[in-house]
Design a protein that fits this description.
Layout lengths: L2 H12 L2 H6 L5 E5 L6 H8 L7 E5 L3 H9 L5 E5 H9 L4 E10 L3 E6 L12 E4 L3 H14 L7 E4 L5 H6 L5 E5 L2 H6 L3 E6 L8 E7 L7 H20 L1 H12 L3 H8 L2 E2 L3 H8 L6 H14 L26
Parallel strand pairs: 1-2, 1-3, 6-7, 6-8
Antiparallel strand pairs: 3-10, 4-10, 4-11, 5-8, 5-9
Helix pairs in contact: 3-9, 3-10, 5-13, 9-10, 10-11
Length: 321
């Protein structure tokens, strides 16, 4: 083979799909917290469905996760729509490529025994994680109870400190979710309000830095595919899936089962409906959430929703999972 033939062969080789795959970035760092809706990725990791290039990094608070995102240590985050809107408002361009779940009872407002209704929240100490979701829940709580911000004391209560705050009587009411909620309910707490009463308010998505959509396409598609493989595993191998999740979260099978009953996991078809631009099902919910955040000065301006979501990373069908 002469030099010209060798160069021609090399050019042809570089144009093959295999070369494209090999030229993909070497890693994808994904940040998440202990939330039942994100357990599909942990389950996929347990079952070895994630490529070794994808690293799941678990945090104990949303605040820590977002700090790492801002610092550039994460490429992808599992996040609520409200936190995503707040991140975008701070200049972090994110695009949602999967809807994990819609909370329908798993997020709760828990009160002490002597507080029997929302009408009794005046002058009470409300413990809540310092996040857009926490602020959104407080805003919703104030609206429903017809109180103003000055009527309550809001106490920053990170997820990993909530049990301590409750047991040491530092709060009267706490806004939380499974599995922490199970612990607090076992310590003389009761539910005043849950997310089933707040439809389309708490939606969890897989959000990637918009600048990485093209360069990380291969790994992003593998990550999304792994999520739906886990959704299928939960559907067809229910006990096995839930026991694995219980072991990961260090809680009982019964508590995992109860936590799943408080969320809705959209199917692949439903995800396509949520994420299809420009009029996907997600858009009306996002606009409603954005209005609440804007009205309560939790974001500085209306999000125009440019590159807010994409269905391009969803598997074509279940047979390709």
């Amino acid at each position: 083979m002469n030099r010209r033939q060798f160069i021609s062969s090399l050019v042809a080789l570089c144009s093959l799909p295999l070369f494209t795959r090999c030229s993909q970035p070497s890693s994808l760092k994904v940040g998440l917290i202990p939330w039942i809706g994100f357990e599909t990725l942990c389950l996929a990791n347990n079952l070895h469905w994630l490529p070794k290039e994808i690293e799941l990094i678990e945090f104990q608070s949303t605040e820590e996760k977002l700090t790492r995102l801002i610092s550039g240590e994460l490429d992808v985050v599992c996040i609520t729509v409200d936190d995503m809107l707040q991140a975008r408002d701070r200049g972090i361009a994110l695009t949602a490529i999967t809807v994990f779940d819609v909370s329908a009872g798993a997020d709760v407002v828990i009160a002490r025994e002597h507080i029997s209704s929302l009408n009794e929240l005046k002058d009470k100490r409300i413990g809540v994680e310092n996040s857009a979701l926490g602020s959104l829940m407080v805003a919703k709580l104030l609206t429903i109870s017809e109180l103003s911000p000055s009527d309550i004391s809001v106490i920053n209560c990170p997820l990993d400190k909530q049990k301590e705050y409750w047991l040491n009587d530092k709060v009267d009411v706490i806004i939380t979710y499974s599995p922490t909620s199970d612990t607090i309910l076992n310590e003389s707490g009761h539910v005043l309000l849950d997310s089933s009463q707040l439809p389309d308010t708490i939606i969890d998505v897989l959000a990637v830095k918009t600048e990485l959509l093209t360069s990380h396409e291969f790994l992003l598609k593998k990550l999304v595919q792994a999520h739906f493989q886990s959704v299928n595993h939960i559907r067809y191998n229910y006990d096995d899936a839930l026991y694995r999740i219980a072991d990961h979260q260090k809680i009982s099978f019964k508590k995992v089962k109860r936590a799943f009953s408080g969320i809705i996991q959209p199917s692949l078809e439903a995800n396509r409906e949520y994420l299809s631009s420009p009029n996907g099902r997600l858009i009306p919910a996002v606009r409603q959430i954005s209005k609440v955040l804007l009205d309560n000065k939790l974001i500085s301006k209306e999000d125009k929703l440019v590159n807010f979501m994409s269905s391009d990373y969803l598997p074509s069908d279940y047979e390709n999972l």
